[in-house]
């Protein structure tokens, strides 16, 4: 019997273990989606190489690390197909066809690409693979005929460009071969680093990995940015921009309790250590079972790689069917 559930494509660049920002931004949704959708979970090692060719061994090692994070948070390989991007060559062939449907100028106008180029200081010295990644991402999505793609707000332009490519391809062959997809943005947007900077990032040293030890969690919360003008307990404090409250909003399910803390903090009479203790207790409870499951899987890396091998085989089968349909539509079915 054919599985008629909607198809969702998710994934992460394999540039390091996942952290709390990934968890609240996407991993919670992915665990839920695997019960209602056919989910393909991509370990984007090929994408990571677009600006990490000098660190290819790190990219290789992080395939296992990211897979451990997926399994630790509750991704079930019996429900979700976890696969390695570089081992599905059909994706590269699809991307090569899609590149004929976009211009260099259009790629350079993609807001996500523009921001990433600026962030990395490439200026005009842009790796070609990095600039053309929107076409590669379109291949990742369309290969599995995904209709749903959970992304952060900054990735919406990539989804828009994927749909442009879908429409152009279908128009060029006169058939509805590829399907458009919808971006799904999580309730909580990008989580700031615990130092108050706008983005949580391992490279900035302000991220808390999912496998963090109890002491690392404690130290991170202790360092968290609050209200610099809240010098005494009795002083009124500001909630907006206060990282501790941002994290409580993201991770504490008792919203009434959080709102009460905010009201007391604004009035004055509530110290920073009180709210930090509340947040630490919540993060310790959240990460302890994830850390334990991660450690259990890490004891048997061969088992994890077997899961990835099986998932990659299933992903190749799905991608090969789409590639065959695309080539037939273009008249490339010679034999």
Automatic annotation (TrEMBL):
<dbReference type="InterPro" id="IPR002306">
    <property type="entry name" value="Trp-tRNA-ligase"/>
</dbReference>
<dbReference type="InterPro" id="IPR002305">
    <property type="entry name" value="aa-tRNA-synth_Ic"/>
</dbReference>
<keyword id="KW-0030">Aminoacyl-tRNA synthetase</keyword>
<keyword id="KW-0648">Protein biosynthesis</keyword>
<keyword id="KW-0067">ATP-binding</keyword>
<dbReference type="GO" id="GO:0005829">
    <property type="term" value="C:cytosol"/>
</dbReference>
<dbReference type="GO" id="GO:0004830">
    <property type="term" value="F:tryptophan-tRNA ligase activity"/>
</dbReference>
<dbReference type="GO" id="GO:0006436">
    <property type="term" value="P:tryptophanyl-tRNA aminoacylation"/>
</dbReference>
<keyword id="KW-0547">Nucleotide-binding</keyword>
<dbReference type="InterPro" id="IPR050203">
    <property type="entry name" value="Trp-tRNA_synthetase"/>
</dbReference>
<keyword id="KW-0436">Ligase</keyword>
<protein>
    <recommendedName>
        <fullName>Tryptophan--tRNA ligase</fullName>
        <ecNumber>6.1.1.2</ecNumber>
    </recommendedName>
</protein>
<dbReference type="Pfam" id="PF00579">
    <property type="entry name" value="tRNA-synt_1b"/>
</dbReference>
<dbReference type="GO" id="GO:0005524">
    <property type="term" value="F:ATP binding"/>
</dbReference>
<dbReference type="InterPro" id="IPR014729">
    <property type="entry name" value="Rossmann-like_a/b/a_fold"/>
</dbReference>
<comment type="similarity">
    <text>Belongs to the class-I aminoacyl-tRNA synthetase family.</text>
</comment>
